[in-house]
Task: structure prediction
Amino acid sequence: MLALKANFNCLVLLATLVVSGIASAESNSAELSVAQIKLKDLRTSQSSVSYHAEKPTVLMYFQPDCSWCKKQGKIITELLGECGNSVHFTLVGDKGSKSQLKRELRHFSADIPSKQSNKMFVRKSGGVKGFPTTLVLDTQGHVLAKRRGFTDEAMLRKLTNELSEGQCALQ
Result:
Protein backbone atom coordinates (compact mmCIF):
# COMPACT_ATOMS: atom_id res chain seq x y z
CA MET A 1 0.00 0.00 0.00
CA LEU A 2 2.86 2.38 0.82
CA ALA A 3 4.41 1.65 -2.58
CA LEU A 4 1.16 2.64 -4.31
CA LYS A 5 1.01 5.90 -2.37
CA ALA A 6 4.65 6.63 -3.23
CA ASN A 7 3.99 5.97 -6.94
CA PHE A 8 0.98 8.24 -6.97
CA ASN A 9 2.80 10.97 -5.04
CA CYS A 10 5.36 10.86 -7.85
CA LEU A 11 2.48 11.27 -10.35
CA VAL A 12 1.19 14.31 -8.48
CA LEU A 13 4.69 15.77 -8.32
CA LEU A 14 5.06 15.41 -12.09
CA ALA A 15 1.70 17.05 -12.63
CA THR A 16 2.70 19.90 -10.36
CA LEU A 17 5.95 20.38 -12.28
CA VAL A 18 4.05 20.60 -15.56
CA VAL A 19 1.47 23.01 -14.25
CA SER A 20 4.12 25.26 -12.78
CA GLY A 21 5.95 25.30 -16.09
CA ILE A 22 9.16 23.67 -14.89
CA ALA A 23 8.79 20.72 -17.24
CA SER A 24 8.85 21.86 -20.83
CA ALA A 25 7.89 20.11 -24.03
CA GLU A 26 11.47 20.33 -25.24
CA SER A 27 12.76 18.31 -22.31
CA ASN A 28 10.09 15.67 -22.95
CA SER A 29 11.00 15.16 -26.61
CA ALA A 30 12.73 11.84 -25.93
CA GLU A 31 9.97 10.75 -23.54
CA LEU A 32 6.70 9.00 -24.30
CA SER A 33 4.40 11.02 -26.53
CA VAL A 34 1.11 10.46 -28.32
CA ALA A 35 1.37 13.80 -30.13
CA GLN A 36 -0.44 13.93 -33.46
CA ILE A 37 -1.68 10.30 -33.24
CA LYS A 38 -5.35 10.37 -34.15
CA LEU A 39 -7.82 7.90 -32.71
CA LYS A 40 -11.34 7.13 -33.89
CA ASP A 41 -14.13 8.34 -31.65
CA LEU A 42 -16.24 5.38 -30.51
CA ARG A 43 -19.47 7.38 -30.69
CA THR A 44 -19.02 9.28 -33.97
CA SER A 45 -16.20 7.48 -35.86
CA GLN A 46 -14.44 10.82 -36.42
CA SER A 47 -10.70 10.88 -35.80
CA SER A 48 -8.92 13.29 -33.48
CA VAL A 49 -6.09 13.43 -30.98
CA SER A 50 -6.77 12.26 -27.41
CA TYR A 51 -5.42 15.33 -25.63
CA HIS A 52 -6.55 18.95 -25.39
CA ALA A 53 -4.39 21.77 -26.74
CA GLU A 54 -5.29 24.20 -23.94
CA LYS A 55 -5.52 22.11 -20.77
CA PRO A 56 -3.90 19.00 -19.28
CA THR A 57 -5.57 15.65 -19.98
CA VAL A 58 -6.36 12.74 -17.70
CA LEU A 59 -6.78 9.69 -19.95
CA MET A 60 -8.11 6.33 -18.79
CA TYR A 61 -7.59 3.12 -20.75
CA PHE A 62 -10.51 0.71 -20.35
CA GLN A 63 -11.40 -2.73 -21.68
CA PRO A 64 -14.65 -4.71 -21.94
CA ASP A 65 -15.94 -6.29 -18.72
CA CYS A 66 -13.53 -4.40 -16.46
CA SER A 67 -15.32 -3.71 -13.16
CA TRP A 68 -12.49 -1.47 -11.91
CA CYS A 69 -12.73 0.59 -15.09
CA LYS A 70 -16.43 1.18 -14.43
CA LYS A 71 -15.72 2.27 -10.86
CA GLN A 72 -12.99 4.68 -11.95
CA GLY A 73 -15.22 5.92 -14.79
CA LYS A 74 -17.86 6.99 -12.25
CA ILE A 75 -15.26 9.03 -10.38
CA ILE A 76 -14.07 10.62 -13.63
CA THR A 77 -17.67 11.54 -14.47
CA GLU A 78 -17.95 13.40 -11.14
CA LEU A 79 -14.63 15.14 -11.74
CA LEU A 80 -15.67 16.15 -15.25
CA GLY A 81 -18.60 18.06 -13.77
CA GLU A 82 -16.38 19.78 -11.22
CA CYS A 83 -13.15 20.25 -13.18
CA GLY A 84 -14.07 20.03 -16.86
CA ASN A 85 -13.23 23.68 -17.46
CA SER A 86 -9.60 23.24 -16.41
CA VAL A 87 -8.81 19.54 -16.97
CA HIS A 88 -9.69 17.44 -20.03
CA PHE A 89 -10.83 13.84 -19.50
CA THR A 90 -10.73 11.10 -22.16
CA LEU A 91 -11.50 7.38 -22.25
CA VAL A 92 -9.55 5.09 -24.58
CA GLY A 93 -10.88 1.58 -25.17
CA ASP A 94 -8.47 -1.31 -25.77
CA LYS A 95 -8.52 -5.13 -25.96
CA GLY A 96 -11.90 -5.36 -27.67
CA SER A 97 -13.66 -4.92 -30.97
CA LYS A 98 -15.28 -1.60 -31.78
CA SER A 99 -18.73 -3.05 -31.04
CA GLN A 100 -17.58 -4.46 -27.67
CA LEU A 101 -16.04 -1.12 -26.70
CA LYS A 102 -19.15 0.79 -27.82
CA ARG A 103 -21.30 -1.50 -25.62
CA GLU A 104 -19.05 -0.69 -22.66
CA LEU A 105 -19.72 3.03 -23.11
CA ARG A 106 -23.13 2.55 -21.48
CA HIS A 107 -21.22 2.43 -18.18
CA PHE A 108 -19.58 5.83 -18.77
CA SER A 109 -20.93 9.36 -19.18
CA ALA A 110 -21.67 10.41 -22.75
CA ASP A 111 -19.95 13.72 -21.90
CA ILE A 112 -16.52 12.06 -21.69
CA PRO A 113 -14.84 11.75 -25.09
CA SER A 114 -14.18 8.09 -25.90
CA LYS A 115 -11.69 6.77 -28.42
CA GLN A 116 -10.56 3.38 -29.70
CA SER A 117 -6.87 2.69 -29.24
CA ASN A 118 -4.56 1.46 -31.95
CA LYS A 119 -1.17 -0.26 -31.79
CA MET A 120 0.80 2.92 -32.46
CA PHE A 121 -1.01 4.84 -29.70
CA VAL A 122 -0.50 2.03 -27.17
CA ARG A 123 3.19 1.73 -28.06
CA LYS A 124 3.83 5.50 -27.95
CA SER A 125 2.07 5.79 -24.59
CA GLY A 126 4.30 3.15 -23.05
CA GLY A 127 2.03 0.11 -23.38
CA VAL A 128 -0.86 -1.13 -21.30
CA LYS A 129 -0.36 -4.06 -18.93
CA GLY A 130 -3.48 -3.74 -16.79
CA PHE A 131 -6.81 -1.96 -16.65
CA PRO A 132 -7.65 0.69 -15.90
CA THR A 133 -4.45 2.51 -16.78
CA THR A 134 -4.42 6.26 -16.18
CA LEU A 135 -2.19 8.69 -18.08
CA VAL A 136 -1.56 12.39 -17.58
CA LEU A 137 -0.85 14.21 -20.84
CA ASP A 138 0.31 17.76 -21.36
CA THR A 139 -1.16 20.10 -23.97
CA GLN A 140 1.19 18.71 -26.64
CA GLY A 141 0.45 15.02 -26.07
CA HIS A 142 3.51 14.14 -23.99
CA VAL A 143 2.94 11.47 -21.35
CA LEU A 144 3.85 13.07 -18.03
CA ALA A 145 2.75 10.27 -15.73
CA LYS A 146 1.24 6.81 -15.94
CA ARG A 147 -0.43 4.56 -13.39
CA ARG A 148 -1.65 1.01 -13.83
CA GLY A 149 -4.68 -0.14 -11.86
CA PHE A 150 -7.59 1.51 -10.10
CA THR A 151 -6.98 5.02 -8.79
CA ASP A 152 -9.31 5.89 -5.93
CA GLU A 153 -11.37 9.05 -5.68
CA ALA A 154 -9.13 10.83 -3.17
CA MET A 155 -6.07 10.37 -5.38
CA LEU A 156 -7.88 11.46 -8.55
CA ARG A 157 -9.27 14.53 -6.78
CA LYS A 158 -5.79 15.48 -5.57
CA LEU A 159 -4.38 14.98 -9.06
CA THR A 160 -7.05 17.10 -10.78
CA ASN A 161 -6.67 19.80 -8.15
CA GLU A 162 -2.93 19.94 -8.87
CA LEU A 163 -3.46 19.92 -12.64
CA SER A 164 -6.04 22.70 -12.42
CA GLU A 165 -3.79 24.83 -10.20
CA GLY A 166 -6.35 24.68 -7.39
CA GLN A 167 -9.39 25.48 -9.53
CA CYS A 168 -10.92 22.09 -8.68
CA ALA A 169 -11.86 22.23 -5.03
CA LEU A 170 -11.03 19.16 -2.97
CA GLN A 171 -14.10 17.68 -1.32
